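BACKBONE GEOMETRY TOKENS:
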Amino acid sequence: MTEHTTDRTPDTVDNSPQNADWWRQAVVYQIYPRSFADANGDGIGDLVGITRRLGHLADLGVDAIWLSPFYPSELKDGGYDVADYRDVDPRLGTLDDFDAMVAEAHRLGLKLFVDIVPNHTSDQHVWFQEALASPPGSPARERYVFRDGTGPDGSLPPTDWEASFSGNAWKQVPDGQWYLHLFAPEQPDLNWEHDDVRADFQETLRFWSDRGVDGFRIDVAHGCAKNLAGPLADIGRPQYKGIHDDMPPGTHPYWDRDEVHEIYRDWRAVLDSYSPPRVAVAEAWVTNSRRVLYTRPDELHQAFNFEFLSAPWRTTDLAKVISESLHAADSVGATATWVLSNHDVVRHASRLGLPPGTDLEAWLRADGHSPEPDRELGLRRARAATLLMLALPGSAYIYQGEELGLPEVADLRVEDLQDPVYGQSGSRRKGRDGCRVPLPWDTDGPSYGFGDAPAWLPQPEGFGALSVAAQDRDPDSHLAFYRTALRLRRELLRPGSPGSEVLGEAGMAEAEQLLHFTRSGGWECVVNVDGPPAHLPPGEVLLASGPLTEDGLLPADTAVWLRTSGSDSAAGGEG
């Protein structure tokens, strides 16, 4: 198994207290631990495997890594069912392995985020096991949301609340009571009105911060606060994603309630007690106007911008999302975040190669064949979208494998699926396994260099051609493009710039055919999303996502970075 080494030195990223704002323009690389690298040959990625491959990420040019859950778990939701928040799943390693990984990451100048899952625990968590062994009304049950059922004999759920994975959000226990689970039944929701819950999560933040963690990604950050006073009320209609326009903002029974911000104000005090302060980013599936509330100066630092990820590949849609996102972040003194893929969505190299309006759930059920994605178009747009994302003010989040141009593995067999979404939706949704297939590192082997055994999710034939080894020395590869873009971005961003400036006044150009904006420091980004070939503004092309036309025009699905004439920037790049 070939491993990549690097000569990158620690001073590439400033870890000192003087650089407390490093996150404002950072590029963060998400690692799904079970699918990144397997060091012990059991088919499951682990912490030692991550440590051995950190050189690849340092050479790639990212500033930080974010680890999806690596805690003890029954894997009923890919590790997001946490049985112990202050330990490592023994299948993935030990706390000593974690400490060694942190030390190596910091040696290479990489910051480290870990995932925190505060909305729910695993049903194997010691608290929930204690609750099941205790009678109704006991203090142990107060840490969760237990309620009596409805109907003459209590045999009906307390409310019509729906779980995000489909079906009713309540499960009955043998003594007749019901507990709330907004996700899988094995993920009981915590009661955040309970002092034990608040105190324990603050202790968890301190535990990992004391071990050198630089930041936290907060799973389902908008779900912790719930209206549990008095009789619980039905909602009376389908609730997928949960929030309805006719509900006043902040009043939904369990999503994005105003009270949730009290939790994160308490967390911010913990994060700020460290030097340098620890950083937190929220996963909150809410609108722009509500998302910025999570990033006020006394709460979390950033929140994921899912509007950008889900925007259609059209100039007008992208321009609207970008403008609104930047202005929203700027209104509270935060910086925007940009992301194209993650562990929950179809990879954008495939998504962008599908016809507009494609029903992704139906496409997955058809094993990715109806319609057939245009692989070449998807990659071309993926490169253009990446240059756009990396040029925008704020932080960019990269999902493992996108630097290789990996497609969605949409044709996994039903018997290989691990995601609970498939079973709980009654087979209506295939789930998220297709973006979680383990990475190919080498051109051959039982799991293409992922490990010495077949991987826990089957990899497609031909995956080796997309591997790190296959692309490493190819100057025209997708990997080489990412390395060049990240190196150039680092050079172009002015030292000390907060990266929060709004798009230049040029805004839209070429009769609304182009996205065109200027960054401080004398460089510009121009993207032809869906128009005819267009003239570029004056300037030196530093990097293009694809070839220009023979007469120098910018074709559709192509982006360039330009250095404007007269700029004194010292950055250089490849055309």
User: Anything to note?
Assistant: The chain is about 25% helix and 10% strand. Residues 1-17, 496-511, 568-575 have pLDDT under 50 and may be disordered. The two ends are 34 Å apart (CA to CA).
